[in-house]
Amino acid sequence: MRPAILSLPLASLSYALTIQPRSDGFADPASWLTNVPDTNGLHEPINIVISADSDDDVLNTNLTTGGSGTYFQSFGYSYECLGQHEGNHQSADLGDGQGAVNETAVIRWDYGDVTVGTCKETVNGGAHFRYWVQDGSKAKTGALFIASSYEQPASEGHGIVEDGYNLGRDWLIGNATAQSSLIPTAELTNGASYSGQTTASNYTYSTTVQYISGLASNTSDGINHADTVSVNGAPANDGLVAVMTVKILSKPNVDASSAGSRHLRSGSELLLYTTFYTLLATAAVALMI
Fold first, then answer.
1. pLDDT in tens, 136-195
2. Cα–Cα distances in angstroms (integers) from residue 73 to residues 15, 68, 76, 166, 222, in the given order
3. Which of 27, 30, 32, 21 is closest to 147 using CA atoms?
4. What are the C-alpha distances in Å from 276 to residues 154, 273, 280, 282?
5. Are the CB atoms for 222 and 42 separated by under 8 Å?
6. Which of 5, 25, 172, 207 has the fewest CB atoms within 10 Å, i.e. the most exposed one?
7. pLDDT tens across 36-73, in order?
């Protein structure tokens, strides 16, 4: 009987060492906050999840074409200016056994130019997000957790605009679902849903989104820039998490994979823009020091 008695605690321990995924394609990390360095313990909200129910390529952060980066470009966001990260890294603990780790990448609004448009965002401000992959041993879902916001220009220290966490979330969702009008942030409630299609590099994506309450806290407590983000005393974070499920409807032929529908600058024009925005980005960083 002794082996049988011992097997029960071992089975229970094995269960306790993993977090059971929700039915909507991710495991609840318990904390829906990033850790912002040099702020005496302040945080920014994690307010979007790309569900593990999405197609595998959408969740693949390593593919040069057809992975998560192509999906982000389909709704107007690209990797950082010339591949260079500006500012501090933020960490988050997704409850997957890895502890607090730095973001996988920071993605910025590209102002219609996937090559150097994010350099403009670095200087002028705008929508941006950072994301993490839930892939530790305790919760290997592959879901992407996103902290989205809308930031001020570099000349204003890259603070967050009024209601910028909620607006940053909803503007991303509006673009990803090709909405013809702004999502009414102040009117959103649990269960609100949106859907639509986007394209990039001859990939067509279908995105469905549902807003969920009860995961993140509806609060200003401990939120970075809460004093300027809060609107009329309302919490800086409304507590809603947008859960995205993304499917690839069509892919390019092999020989057409590089023929994206979004404009990429080339030759002397690219050199001119790259030099210009590099100088602007350098000047912007200097202003922040």
1. 999 999 999 999 999 999 888 889 999 999 999 999 999 999 999 999 999 999 999 999
2. 39, 9, 5, 21, 32
3. 32
4. 16, 5, 6, 10
5. yes
6. 5
7. 999 999 999 999 999 999 999 999 999 989 999 999 99
| DSSP codes of every residue in 179-225 | -SS---GGG--TT-EEEEEEEETTEEEEEEEEEE-SSS--B-TTBTT
The phi and psi torsions of 67 (rounded to 5 degrees) equal: -90, -155
Distance CA 33, CA 124 (A): 26
| Helix, coil or strand: residue 144 | strand
- Rounded-to-integer distance, Cα 118 and Cα 77, Å: 8
The answer to whether residues 194 and 177 touch, using CB atoms and an 8 Å cutoff, is yes
All residues at 6 or more sequence positions from 89 whose CB lies less than 8 Å from its CB, including other chains: 37, 102, 103
Alpha carbon 242 to chain centroid, angstroms: 11
Q: Is the pLDDT of residue 287 over 90?
A: no
Residue 165: exposed, middle, or buried by beta-carbon count in 10 A (0-12, 13-18, 19+)? Answer: buried
DSSP state of 281: H
Tokens representing residue 138 in the block: 């305790």
Distance between CA 14 and CA 60 in Å, rounded? 28
Instruction: List the one residue out of 44, 66, 28, 3 whose CA is nearest residue 201.
Output: 66
User: Which pairing describes strands 203-212 and 241-250: parallel, antiparallel, or unpaired?
Assistant: antiparallel
